[in-house]
Amino acid sequence: MDLLPAPTEPSEALKSPVVEIETVDMVADAVAAPDPEVSSELDTDSDDSDAWETLSDADDAIQLLRDDQLRDGLVPGACTLDEATAYRQRLHAIGKAAFVEETIARETVTAKKLCTAFGIAPPAFLDGAPDEAFHPLLAIAISREFSRRPKLPQYNTIDDAVKLLRESKNVIVLTGAGISTSLGIPDFRSKDTGLYSRLEHLGLSDPQEVFDIHIFREDPSIFFSIAKEILPTEKKYSPTHGFIRLLQDKGKLLTNYTQNIDNIEANAGVLPEKMVQCHGSFATATCMKCKFKVSGDAIFSDIKDGTIPECTACQKSIAEDALKPQGLKRKRSANGQQKSRKDSDDSSDDEDYDIPTPGVMKPDITFFGEDLPDEFGRRLVHHDRELADLVIVIGTSLKVAPVAEVPGILPRNVPQIYISRTPVSHTGFDIDLLGDCDVVVSELCRRAGWDLQHHMIPADEKVEVTPVEGYESRHMFRVIGA
Ligand SMILES: [Zn+2]
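Above are the sequence and the zinc ion SMILES. Below is the predicted complex in structure-token form.
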């Protein structure tokens, strides 16, 4: 895909955006990079997590327009807010292909102007370019809008949020690292304060490599040198964990999908049947060789010491083999055939290895390159999807698929509330409650008349809630005294 396609017959030029709309979903490299060579990466496959990161990067590079800028008419050549709203509604009503046919193909509006309807400002490097040059950008803008869940207009205020809490019966709570940071557990993805910034001394080119299954197989010491940082040592939990427990006690918790691997929800008393640990947890560990499974407690002392835990089942079978007169010969099969390492799951696994070494015990957290637990999609699609009447997303920037896709998978009439320090732009929530999530949930409970008791919430805490300018459904929470 070229950013500056050569002008062709009008009918041909019009074909390209329609095709691109189908292929560039969620991958916005081309817009971020004026370099045509970089834009060719659009065609390459990337996994979902990369796509989300890329989108986020592109979000930073694309100049985004806010609705209040359109409303105030501050952007030359842009749609008015009324026009933009009408285009967005039309797109969702008739679909991408028909929308392009009705607008660009019939030349009822320029691609350059239409980009602004979807919140994207024409970039400076396209100044003076023919309108076709804006087609790739428009394709991305349309895809972003189309995959975005439309905000439900009837939910905006804190009172709306409190009413939803009180009236809903089946709440899905989606949580991320932000709900554990008040306990001193580092946020994985935060660039400055998070775990990743502490990993530079390990010489990793990409901090995500710590959680890369291929690297773990090569050298598990990298992971175990930092694992103790993310392993909770005490049975503590945050007010936000307490809030999830409170929803459970009130019979309102449908499922807590957590991206966290710290297993702190258990400390708060959230029942295992109410939880899906989307990225696994430290609660159990499995041998990389023989698949022997142990309780996480069994390897905690190794993790705390920063040493690599070895499989006791492997150790036992190696010891037994060594006592047999022909033990060493068994290490190679007589006819020279090697069993497939991947498929072998039984006690004869050690025959594949010349030097008998016990397997490494890997905590059952999901590494990059590993499949998510089956329970995630099964429960979401076959159970929760029909039942959920409220979604609360807390303490996650929703950048890692497929967890990030949960809000989009649920029926669009289910209200969605977002609680975090900073808003996200790539998915549309009905109400954004910004601030320290412990403060937000404690204030919500106060207003709902619910008794959320936690030693980290001062008894006489006073919270100020102020509207965020330009957004009628965004509210900032701040402690003003206790
Ligand atoms: Zn083993």
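The pocket of zinc ion is lined by residues 287, 289-290, 292, 311, 313-314, 359 (CB under 6 Å).
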